[in-house]
């Protein structure tokens, strides 16, 4: 019994639908979305008519032109033409004989966003229209900024990740891995008059040496980006040179090292401001004794400095009766200590 009813219902529907489709003229469009800079086809199609098509025309109401206006018409004999000024980014890609009024727009900008109206003018029934909303997505402009935190005990902003002027708003987050609990993020966003949004996420933390040089990532996602953007960020905590250490690299070469950010510039000098040219060579942080003469005698100073401060280290060299002695001068609060690091007889220091 039921199946008979179903059959009856379906059959009558098929018949009536077929009947309707022969008579129900309609214009179909669409709701289009395009990324700024891209190309989009504004679809417009007329179906189910046997009337004469006189003209297809297009109107727009956009951010740039907020009052609805005609801007493009297509007539059989004359072909497509611009109304109210030419904009060659628009191109008719439909076909009058196919009743296809589609229009292509290239190099889309945010100002093109709005409502496009496609109008088929038929004889005798007149105008038949459809509206095509065009939604423009704007990818964010991504950037990272190092906030140059100096070593300290208070929480500060270590760096800032920005996704500027995105539509729709972008998501900005930090991937901090093992620094979980040591750093955290705070995000805020600002909407602009042109409907784009700037999202800023600051990475907060106490600027310690422990988090210096650690790698984290800022990840930006947006509907306007084909894939997420990952920006690597090496946390920088800036500090003056720590203690200066002079150590023996080889029997005649000493190196001055320290920890600093940015890296310290290291220079050697002698307390009496004279420099035994041929007997000592200075190269970067190293000091090399080339020959053993009593000219070498003296106090050598290593100065490590960056924009945050300066630290000194001292090496005392003493040559006497076939022997060379190197002493580190360690300055402690209240007293000065000389620590012998090496002493060689003449034969060891040969070139
Ligand atoms: C068109 O689509 C967009 C995105 O899917 C939506 O936000 C918007 O409301 C739609 N507009 C209309 C008029 O349907
Ligand atoms: C109308 O023309 C456009 C552009 O040539 C084409 O992409 C689209 O498929 C056509 N529409 C129909 C319904 O045939
Ligand atoms: C939107 O406005 C913001 C802020 O004034 C500007 O930086 C951005 O370039 C604008 N975007 C577009 C697509 O016009």
UniProtKB/TrEMBL annotation:
<keyword id="KW-0325">Glycoprotein</keyword>
<feature type="domain" description="Ig-like">
    <location>
        <begin position="232"/>
        <end position="320"/>
    </location>
</feature>
<dbReference type="GO" id="GO:0005912">
    <property type="term" value="C:adherens junction"/>
</dbReference>
<dbReference type="GO" id="GO:0016020">
    <property type="term" value="C:membrane"/>
</dbReference>
<dbReference type="InterPro" id="IPR003599">
    <property type="entry name" value="Ig_sub"/>
</dbReference>
<dbReference type="Pfam" id="PF07686">
    <property type="entry name" value="V-set"/>
</dbReference>
<dbReference type="GO" id="GO:0007156">
    <property type="term" value="P:homophilic cell adhesion via plasma membrane adhesion molecules"/>
</dbReference>
<keyword id="KW-0472">Membrane</keyword>
<dbReference type="InterPro" id="IPR013783">
    <property type="entry name" value="Ig-like_fold"/>
</dbReference>
<keyword id="KW-0812">Transmembrane</keyword>
<feature type="domain" description="Ig-like">
    <location>
        <begin position="23"/>
        <end position="135"/>
    </location>
</feature>
<keyword id="KW-1133">Transmembrane helix</keyword>
<keyword id="KW-0677">Repeat</keyword>
<feature type="domain" description="Ig-like">
    <location>
        <begin position="139"/>
        <end position="230"/>
    </location>
</feature>
<dbReference type="GO" id="GO:0007157">
    <property type="term" value="P:heterophilic cell-cell adhesion via plasma membrane cell adhesion molecules"/>
</dbReference>
<comment type="similarity">
    <text>Belongs to the nectin family.</text>
</comment>
<dbReference type="InterPro" id="IPR013106">
    <property type="entry name" value="Ig_V-set"/>
</dbReference>
<keyword id="KW-1015">Disulfide bond</keyword>
<dbReference type="Pfam" id="PF08205">
    <property type="entry name" value="C2-set_2"/>
</dbReference>
<keyword id="KW-0130">Cell adhesion</keyword>
<keyword id="KW-0732">Signal</keyword>
<dbReference type="InterPro" id="IPR003598">
    <property type="entry name" value="Ig_sub2"/>
</dbReference>
<dbReference type="InterPro" id="IPR013162">
    <property type="entry name" value="CD80_C2-set"/>
</dbReference>
<dbReference type="InterPro" id="IPR036179">
    <property type="entry name" value="Ig-like_dom_sf"/>
</dbReference>
<feature type="signal peptide">
    <location>
        <begin position="1"/>
        <end position="24"/>
    </location>
</feature>
<dbReference type="InterPro" id="IPR051427">
    <property type="entry name" value="Nectin/Nectin-like"/>
</dbReference>
<dbReference type="Pfam" id="PF13927">
    <property type="entry name" value="Ig_3"/>
</dbReference>
<dbReference type="InterPro" id="IPR007110">
    <property type="entry name" value="Ig-like_dom"/>
</dbReference>
<protein>
    <recommendedName>
        <fullName>Ig-like domain-containing protein</fullName>
    </recommendedName>
</protein>
